[in-house]
Amino acid sequence: MRLHNTLTRRVEDFVPAxxxxxxxxxxxxxxxxxxxxxxxxxxxxxDLLARTLKRRFPNVVYARNITDIDDKINAAARELGVxxxxxxxxxxxxxxxxxxxxxxxxxxxxxxATAHIGAIIAMCERLIASGHAYAADGHxxxxxxxxxxxxxLSRRDPDEMLAGARIDVAPYKRDPGDFVLWKPSDDxxxxxxxxxxxxxPGWHIECSAxxxxxxxxxxxxxxxxxxxxxxxxxxEIAQSQCAHGGKVFARHWLHSGMLNLDGAKMSKSLGNTxxxxxxxxxYPAEALRYALLSGHYRQPLDWSQALIEQSIRTLDRxxxxxxxxxxxxxxxxxxxIPAVIEAALDDDLDTPAVLAAIAEIAAxxxxxxxxxxxxxxxxxxxxxxxxxxxxxxxxxxxxxxxxRTDDDEAARIQARIDERTAAKxxxxxxxxxxxxxxxAAAGIVLEDTAQGVRWSRxxx
Length: 460
Ligand code: AMP
Ligand code: ZN
Hints:
By secondary structure, the protein is of the alpha/beta class. The longest helix is centred in the N-terminal third of the chain and has 20 residues, at 37-56. It has 3 domains: 2-256, Rossmann fold; 276-398, no CATH class; 400-457, no CATH class. The relative contact order is 0.11. The strands form 5 sheets. A 4-stranded parallel β-sheet has the order 4-3-9-10. The chain has a 4-stranded antiparallel β-sheet with strand order 5-6-7-8. Strands 12-11-13 form a 3-stranded mixed β-sheet, covered by helices on one side. The chain has helices at 37-56, 71-80, 84-101, 117-129, 158-164, 203-215, 229-243, 276-282, 285-292, 305-324, 339-346, 351-367, 371-388, 395-401, 407-425, 429-441, and strands spanning 2-5, 10-13, 22-26, 60-64, 133-136, 139-142, 179-184, 199-201, 219-225, 250-256, 259-261, 264-265, 301-302, 444-449, 452-457. Helix 6 crosses helix 7 and helix 11 runs antiparallel to helix 12. Residues 27, 29-30, 38-39, 41-42, 224-225, 227-228, 258-259, 265-267 line the site of adenosine monophosphate.
């Protein structure tokens, strides 16, 4: 398998340190709100990576953490007048629901930052002992000057790094670029006892401690969104490498491109977000997943209504093909994934090539007439869909709930179609045409097929 490595900026063969235990760590969400579809893009990309790795290696340990202590959580809890645990429990549950509903695998390990305070404190102590960190004013800071390789991942020079990190110049810092490993908590804030007084961890050290606890001091793959390259991942490298005697932290770094809305990164702070929770109420999960995987993972992807609609239409066509093959029985759940699909995934998770191959398989399936050929094509289509976890529904179920409108409207449209079918049967073609024209005026296009009438929305 070949994967792009941010460390080298090259697509490289992925060779695990120990093929008997492949380790993948992905930075998970900070749980103070519902996740948006931008977050979901990153999690969907790494879900695809985990699924693919699990077919290549017998034992893949995939960890995706939950950040359940953070100043944004503290602020949300304060605003609501509740303990942070009330906020994090609620949005952790919502996150897990969203992931499940979106059809993503549960990771093998889901570590919570607050369950690793002991490991975090121990790591801070180790970094102080080795001279890479210092305590000052209830804080523990990482001394960037003590790690000459700092900046290796993001390839930034020190001035750029200062600007990028929006550093607070604070009296307790030796160097403005030094970053916080531990900070003091007053009585109004959550905190834990530590050698430096009551306090709480900084964000970066949490991931270093959780990765080491569950995956080991050196891991194979580390992933996250492109926006985490600096400072978060740069800081994870500094902490982990220095706490572990110079051992390489992650051998292979993967970063997924940002999901944009009108050219701007979708983010909670800009407020230009669509929540996964809301989207799932309106669109089939497979359509969202298809849309998220329609671009290559390293490129930015523009989220739009048109993208969702295009994805639904494409899936309509593919499910239509499966419906036309309903008479041939194949075991879809065990259909092997075609070699052309595996090869595209091995080529740095080339999902656009996977989707093109799926379209091609469907086209040959539509042309097939020989029963054995039809069965083989159907199995290939189902197997191909399995690689991306799409086309896994019964076509009838897809067409029943795959309509991208509210149920009432869909029922109304279906009722008019049924009336038209009845009119045609009664040879009342004027009435049948009138109903078709009425629906066309409302932007609904009908297609008469051997299996009945299909409808879709006209593209403007
Ligand atoms: P956060 O909760 O903000 O730390 O984000 C959780 C994950 O979502 C991280 O891996 C981020 O890199 C990723 N992420 C945040 N915004 C976007 C976006 N607009 N597009 C893709 N990934 C994102
Ligand atoms: Zn992280």
